[in-house]
C-alpha cells in the first residue's frame, strides 16, 4: 500500500510559516494584498477563487476582487491590469485563466507587472524559472509539487524525474524546478515513443498530461513517487486525476490522491507568493 502524499498537512504547514511574516509586515503598516481578476462566470474559476479567498483569510492576506463580463473588450481588460500594476496597495495579482477565446492571452499575460505576477504567467517569470533569477514567481501548481516532496522529506537531488506534460502551466516549469533541485529530468508527452517505458524509468513521476486516468500500471514500477496534478470531473460527479489511482496505489511507493493532493497545496503557495511580494515591496519602500 502506497504512502498517500496528502496536500492538507503541507498547506497547513505553509500557512503556519506565513503567519509570523504577515505579523511583521503589519508592524510596518503593510497588509499583504492579492487582487483576483476574473473574466466571466466559469464554475472552475469561481471555485478556485473561493479557495484562494479562504486560504488568504487564514493567513491575513487582504483580497480585492475584480470581476469583468465574459464579453469584455481586450483594451478594457488591459486597462484594468494597468490600474492594478500602479496600485501600491496591491502586492500580487491572480488572473484566472484560460480567458475567453476572443481575448489575446499572450497580451494579457505580458501586460502584468512581473513583480506582482504571483502565479508565473508573465514572460519575465518564465525567464526567471529558466535562469534561476528572482523576477516573478513560478506557477503555483508546480511549485506546490516541490513543496509536497520537501514536506514529506522525499529526496530529489540525484533522482531521475520524468515529467509527463510540456505545458507552460505545469510541465515545463515543473521540469525546471526539479532541475534546480538537482534531479535528472526527462520531459515527455503523448507523442513520446515508448511512453510507458520512459515513465517506468522514473524515480519521481509527475503526471501533467491533461488526460484523465492516462497513467496505468504499464507506466509504473515499485518504489516510484507519483505526483498527479490532473483534475477531471467524472459522469458520477466525482473527480479523478491523470493517474488511474486504483491501478497505481498498489504498485508505487507514494502517491498524491485526487482530490486532496497537489490541488490542496496550490492556494497555500499562492498565499506564500503574495507574502513574498509584500516583503519585497516593504524592502524597496525602506530603501
Written description of the protein model:
With 287 residues, this protein is α/β, with parallel strands linked by helices. The protein folds into two domains: 28-114, 3-Layer(aba) Sandwich (Rossmann fold); 140-263, NAD(P)-binding Rossmann-like Domain (Rossmann fold), CATH 3.40.50.720. Helix content is 43%, strand content 15%. It has a six-stranded parallel β-sheet. α7 (171-180) links the parallel β5 and β6 (184-188). α2 packs across α10 (262-286). It is globular and about 50 Å long. The relative contact order is 0.17.
Question: Which SSEs are present, and which pair or pack?
Answer:
Blueprint: E1 3-4, H1 7-27, E2 33-39, H2 43-59, E3 62-68, H3 74-86, E4 92-95, H4 105-111, H5 123-131, H6 140-151, E5 160-164, H7 171-180, E6 184-188, H8 195-200, E7 204-207, E8 225-228, E9 232-233, E10 239-240, H9 245-248, E11 254-255, H10 262-286
Parallel strand pairs: 1-11, 2-3, 2-4, 5-6, 5-7, 7-8, 8-11
Antiparallel strand pairs: 9-10
Task: Record keyword descriptors for this entry.
alpha/beta; Rossmann fold; 2 domains; six-stranded parallel sheet; 10 helices; 11 strands
* Rounded average pLDDT: 95
- Calculate the terminal CA-CA distance, rounded to whole Å: 54 Å
What is the highest CATH level, the class of the largest domain? Alpha Beta
Q: How would you classify the helix and strand content by structural class?
A: alpha/beta
Major sheet size, sense and barrel closure: 6 strands, parallel
| Secondary-structure arrangement, i.e. CATH architecture of the largest domain | 3-Layer(aba) Sandwich
Tally of individual domains: 2
Give the name of the CATH superfamily of the largest domain.
Answer: NAD(P)-binding Rossmann-like Domain
Amino acid at each position: 500500500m502506497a504512502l498517500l502524499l496528502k496536500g492538507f498537512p503541507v498547506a497547513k504547514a505553509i500557512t503556519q510559516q506565513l503567519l509570523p511574516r504577515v505579523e511583521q509586515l503589519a508592524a510596518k503598516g503593510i497588509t499583504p494584498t492579492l487582487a483576483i481578476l476574473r473574466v466571466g462566470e466559469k464554475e472552475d474559476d469561481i471555485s478556485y477563487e473561493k479557495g484562494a479567498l479562504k486560504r488568504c483569510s487564514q493567513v491575513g492576506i487582504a483580497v480585492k476582487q475584480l470581476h469583468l463580463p465574459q464579453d469584455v473588450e481586450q483594451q478594457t481588460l488591459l486597462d484594468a491590469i494597468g490600474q492594478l500594476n500602479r496600485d501600491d496597495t496591491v502586492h500580487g495579482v491572480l488572473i484566472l485563466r484560460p480567458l475567453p477565446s476572443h481575448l489575446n492571452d499572450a497580451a494579457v499575460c505580458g501586460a502584468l507587472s512581473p513583480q506582482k505576477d504571483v502565479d508565473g504567467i508573465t514572460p519575465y517569470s518564465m525567464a526567471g524559472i529558466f535562469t534561476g533569477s528572482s523576477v516573478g514567481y513560478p506557477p503555483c501548481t508546480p511549485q506546490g509539487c516541490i513543496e509536497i516532496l520537501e514536506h514529506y522529506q522525499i529526496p530529489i537531488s540525484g533522482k531521475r524525474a520524468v515529467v509527463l506534460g510540456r505545458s507552460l502551466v505545469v510541465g515545463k516549469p515543473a521540469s525546471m524546478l526539479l532541475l534546480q533541485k538537482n534531479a535528472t529530468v526527462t520531459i515527455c508527452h503523448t507523442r513520446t515513443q515508448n511512453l510507458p517505458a520512459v515513465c517506468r524509468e522514473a524515480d519521481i513521476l509527475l503526471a501533467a498530461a491533461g488526460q484523465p486516468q492516462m497513467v496505468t500500471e504499464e507506466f509504473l514500477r515499485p518504489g516510484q513517487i507519483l505526483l498527479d496534478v490532473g483534475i477531471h470531473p467524472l459522469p458520477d460527479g466525482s473527480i479523478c486525476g491523470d493517474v488511474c489511482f486504483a491501478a497505481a496505489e498498489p504498485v508505487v511507493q507514494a502517491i498524491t490522491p485526487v482530490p486532496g493532493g497537489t490541488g490542496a497545496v496550490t492556494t497555500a503557495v499562492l498565499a506564500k507568493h503574495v507574502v513574498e511580494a509584500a516583503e519585497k515591496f516593504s524592502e524597496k519602500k525602506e530603501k
